[in-house]
Amino acid sequence: MEKFPKKKFQELVKIIQYHNNLYYNDDNPKISDAEYDELINDYRKIKKLFPIETKQSDLLDEIGGKPSELFSKFNHPTRMLSLDNAMSEDDLVNFQKKLSNFLNKKTNDFEFSTEPKIDGLSVNLIYKNGKLVIAATRGDGQTGENITNNVITIKDIPKLLKTKSPPTFIEIRGEIFITKDDFIKLNTENNFANPRNAAAGSLRQLDPRETAKRPLKFIAHGFGSYNGEKNNYYDQLIELKSWGIPISPFLKKVQNLNELMTIYNEINKKRAEIPYDIDGLVYKVNNLSFQNRLGIVGKSPRWAIAHKFASETAQTEIKKIDIQVGRTGSLTPVARLKPINIGGVLVSNATLHNFEEIEKKDIREGDSVIVERAGDVIPHILRVVNKNKKNRPKLFKPPKYCPICKSPTIIDPDEVVVRCSGTYICDAQKVGRLKHFVSRSALDIEGLGDKQINLFYKKGLIRDYADIFDLVAKRAIVVNFEGWGTLSFDNLINAIDQKKKIELSKFIYSLGIRFVGQINAKLISSAFSNIEEFKNFFESENDIVNALKNTDGLGPKVIQSFVEYSSIKSNKKQILKLIKKVELFIKKIDTVKSKITGKKIIFTGTLSLMSRAEAKSQAEKLGAKVVSSISKSTDILVSGENSGSKLKKAKELGVTVMNEKEWNNLTG
Ligand code: IVH
User: Fold this and answer.
1) Are 355 and 333 in contact, with CB atoms under 8 Å apart?
2) How is domain 600-667 classified at the CATH fold level?
3) pTM for this one?
4) Distance of CA 99 from the midpoint of ligand 1 (Å)
5) Domain 73-308, classified CATH 3.30.470.30, yes or no
6) CATH code for 427-585?
7) Which of 87, 118, 308 to probe ligand 1 with, by most ligand atoms within 8 A of CB?
8) pLDDT tens digits for 563-582?
């Protein structure tokens, strides 16, 4: 059999990139179109002969695949955010309550902008002095791929802003998509699952001339770094429009929740007539200074929300009920379905949530059921429509023993959850934790997903976290696995190497400790002054409990779970082994140097000028640490109305006490 011409292939890729750059960036091609096509033909031929070895460079027609090495990485100057979802009017009322609580305002003090949530691909466009210089995909929000060469072929996107006085620097965010009609036309030749995948496939073309042929459209919906003159989002978008950037024709501003609901119902009704796929509306607080004060929680801004449209449903049959054991040991019954297409997605599994749900809805194998799917949420069963008539099996009861490790199960008294008690011996839990560790929200190792973790675990190559970083030594074994080759293995090792430097809060989150999500992980990490302290904690059990208890926002349940986790010998061993393989660091949050930098602050009583949450976030931005219990080491106590025992104790300890006004004067 012919050998894979690795060097030739790599060179070819480089040559194609070089000519792409000449053609699209410099407007100065050095070869004819025919010569260029020949290069592309060679590339295609090698790919066809060696599909496995060239898998990672597949950019010509991959659908929604992994980012390829062929596009260079790009760090967004300002992080690209996600959106929290609202599924009901109640969720919206809650959203509005949170806004008013945080800013200490009345619920009807807010004006909102509204526009549809387009189901496309998010991009970041950077214009310097009015000239488009970079276009990049969202990626993980921090780092995306540089797709400038492809994006400049999109007619909707101006290469030069139509204004005499453009900003020196602006990041414009928006959605690239394909209309429903164009999708149908395009799909006579291709086989994309839906318009979103078609847009993704079109943007991923190795040859930008191919992208140029695709009917890609663009609509802007926000900004990264930009210091404009407008004081609200709506006006900023209207200004963008005057510069030639497409914005949503449905953009509106409204004064209250009732008006939002009216628009939501109107758009929902016309959804089918809108030329592109939308899956809800996005509402944003219009006032930019409010946006700035509200800030970000986790990955989403506090000032925006996506109001999703109701789900879609379909009828199918339950073939079997299985049990899945998750990383925290929870036993979840899952219905295996006769596959069914629901709103463009093939669904073959639905979660049954818990055993109570099965009983309440009387769901059994062989029944015909209505399945509901909404957005990215796992499909679930609404109700039984036709009971299985022949030999209807008995009701599915929670098992007494874990189906995987045979440990006894326990029923959580506060929850309806049945749990496997074999936390550290159960293979399902171990695999679940490994999957979480490498998943997108945690370490995000490209090419190491559920499928690969299952395989490496089964083969005994990855048993704990540290093994991931030792995988390189297993080269001779892995390259012989079906579907694997030297190139794919090298790519995986490369991806693992890239994730060796880990920020402490991400590290803590990645361990998958119960109750320790991203926000709590951040709070826990803030209790450690440096990485040495963190290591020592696992080595010699130095006491961090007081520091944890004194971290504002960290509750006793979370602290107990974290401390319990770290007191277990096998966890200690695993973590110490892992720490040796990676490089941990603490990221300093962006703070402004101020009079209170480095100071410990405590808030007590009711504040009237701002909410407690805003005061806390402001103090942190100014470099202070907000603590929850008073001691000699506390620097300032800010006392609101009705302050009680803390104020008394502060006076006894000689801690500086301020009222809100004095605090505001100090912090500006
Ligand atoms: S605002 C400020 N507005 O939805 C938060 N996003 O789930 C940033 N999207 O990655 C987004 N239509 O790509 C915003 N009108 C719209 C949108 C929209 C679609 C996408 C966007 C983002 C994702 C968040």
Assistant:
1) yes
2) Rossmann fold (3.40.50)
3) 0.65
4) 19
5) yes
6) 1.10.150.20
7) 118
8) 999 988 889 999 999 999 99
